[in-house]
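Posting here for the record, re: adenosine monophosphate.
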Amino acid sequence: MLGLMQDWPLLISKMLEHAEINHPRRELMGLLPEGGEFRYTYADMALRARKCAEALQSLDVKFGDCVATLCWNSHRHMEAWFGISGMGGVTHTVNPRLFAEQIAYIINHAEDKVLMYDITFHPLVEKLAPQLKSVRHYICMVGKEHLPESSLNVLSYEELISAEKGLYSWPEFDENTACGLCYTSGTTGNPKGVLYSHRSNFLHTLLVLGKDTLGIGSTTSILPVVPMFHANAWGIPFAACASGAKIAFNGPHHDPETLHKLIIDEDVNFTAAVPTVWLGMLDYLVKHDLDLGKLEAVTIGGAACPRFMIEAFQEKFGVRVNHAWGMTETSPLGSLGTENAAVADLSKEEKLDIQCKQGRTVFGVEMTIKDDDGNELPRDGETSGRLMVRGPWIAKEYFRGDGGNILDENGWFDTGDVACIDAHGYMQITDRAKDVIKSGGEWISSIDLENEAAAHPAVKEAAVIGIFHPKWNERPLLLVVLEDGASVSFDEMTQHLTGRIAKWWMPDAMEVIDEIPHTATGKISKKDLREQFKDYTLPTA
Ligand code: AMP
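Prediction output follows.
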């Protein structure tokens, strides 16, 4: 017997309609790539998103077509998201930090019909254009007066939408229709596309609103530093519409001074970004003796959040840190470390230990760890194995079938992460499967080592890679970037690490370097470091 409840397809446009009807005067503001700032409301945004859809139709964009965006976080990018997906197209968010060849590859792979881009990227677009086989129109996200001179026939976004009436009504179609596309770069081979559906993003949005996840509501004022070109900006723009939260868009600015000014001026009480962003911010705050105004919570994920960072936010600035784990393939939220009744009675130190873990599985996602033979491992907080996930916002295959079958026989997706899960359900990433250091048949977690090394006051950032060792196969090499004017010897570091890590995990050597390379998504690029140190000989070898 079927239930007798009403049904409508779970479409992205429903979120925008909700904001327009129920939060019409709630504000959105942003810093513009062409300079200056902009302020308007959800009612304005919804109108302009409809105009955007009309403009795309006039350019012959059809249901199912992919449209690329090469944009910072901005109100125009948000209009494009809703305009493209709302009409049944696919918003392909392109990460501008990828190599130019990779950008050309993914735009060709997606067969994008239109490329909408911020003026910052005009030189890049001009360079790429001869290689882009499917792109018929280039839209620069500025008014006509800011349109750059170009050999391409570049259209002005503002001019295009000002010609439209905004009377478009969002069509209804199957909720399983694709709505967004984001490529993720593996370690080998070409980037692979994760193709989100209206349904998966809608369900993910409902989750994101919950108290035990991002807890976004109508009184939230958000600074989503996490870029809209990476994993749906952790679902924040959708959740903001679905709840009427204010957004302050940082545009092309990622420096601590600008971010701090936005936090203060826009009464930001919630923000989210990868740890590297906060490294710079914490430095800046201490140097200038500043506070964080009304900021209540920061979600940190994308890479392991070091303990000192959690402590600094909470102890010095009274801002709660929620440590999150996710991937492009998981829409992206998989687990989150919000407050938990089950551990409420623990000491402050014990709670901090727990916050360093990557949190508990969010409702709607199932998580397990397995050994290499596919056997499930115990949830004892110690045994680590391959982290596997499944759920309605987890990818079941990559776009155009790349990489073949990605699920095991029980529908689990292998994340490529190595993790353990404790009795309370807290998951802790110990490594990427490919970064784990295999010493004498045992595994050393590079992430643990990095976190402990980064806790030394002289260290700004730390990375650990495995280096060939004739006896142990691999041993850890610690690479550190130091705070300005600070120094630390290998002996001092060894003393600092003693008692914090297992004895046999102690790095065999330490090198001070000027900079740790990062990937296009803000993670430490172990691939580059391994290349840089490929001829390194350990003193113990
Ligand atoms: P991406 O698809 O680019 O978002 O990368 C996903 C990967 O980032 C995951 O598979 C993890 O390896 C890593 N990651 C994400 N969040 C965390 C976290 N909180 N701690 C450690 N690694 C993380």
